[in-house]
Amino acid sequence: MWLYLKFDKKISDKGTLNLTLQNRFHNNVAEFSQRFVDVGYEHKISKHLRFLADYVYGGKRRNDGSFNHVHQLYAGFLLRQKWKQFTFIYRNVVQASMENVYSSDNGQIPLFYERNKGTIKYSINKTLDFYVASELNSPFYRIQDLPVRRTRLFAGLEYQFTKRISFESYFMLQNRYRYSNPSSREFVYGLSFSYHF
User: Which class for 24: exposed (0-12), middle (13-18), buried (19 or more C-beta within 10 A)?
Assistant: First the structure.
């Protein structure tokens, strides 16, 4: 189960700041496993193109129950095109990730990934949208050994409760591919609450 709280604030005609608080539970929702704070900026370049930049700080649960420290920085762009009741979205970002910066020999070496996500959204009515999406995560540092590190498939609903408040629920199938260990699969249920200031 992945739970999100999102807050957006428009700071200009083209710029928006956002804050996202994430909490993730694994092992049949019995174990609190990850927590993140995401601070980002989105800039509208044109009707169809936006620039994105975010910094993420958080922790991932270790086997001993403690949490390691995670820093992520990513930047990229988002393309959006509407056609009748459909909206087509493509997002491409490059992400740098570091874990345990001060307690690991490799912690200060950033690992770079490219993340590609495509979404098809269908507007059922003015308040309810259905969408499907797919995401590929590719590691730059081992692309010759492991061209795709992770895939995600989504199906979800977005409900615009009021002009400022929206809810999202989705199901996600996530596959992780590892260079030396067996691959793994996760079935994730997500809930998001968003408030637009």
Answer: buried
Three-state SS at 140: helix
Question: Six-digit token pair at 158?
Answer: 């977005």
What is the number of other CB atoms lying within 10 angstroms of the CB of residue 139?
A: 20
User: What region, left, alpha or beta, does residue 13 occupy, with left being phi > 0 and alpha being psi -120 to 50 degrees?
Assistant: alpha
Q: How far is CA 95 from the centre of its chain?
A: 11
Render pLDDT for 153-171 as a digit per residue (tens, 0 to 9): 999 999 999 999 999 999 9
Amino acid 130 reads: F
Report whether 41 contacts 53 (CB < 8 A).
yes
The residues with which 185 forms a beta bridge, in sequence order, are 175
Question: What global pTM score does this model have?
Answer: 0.90
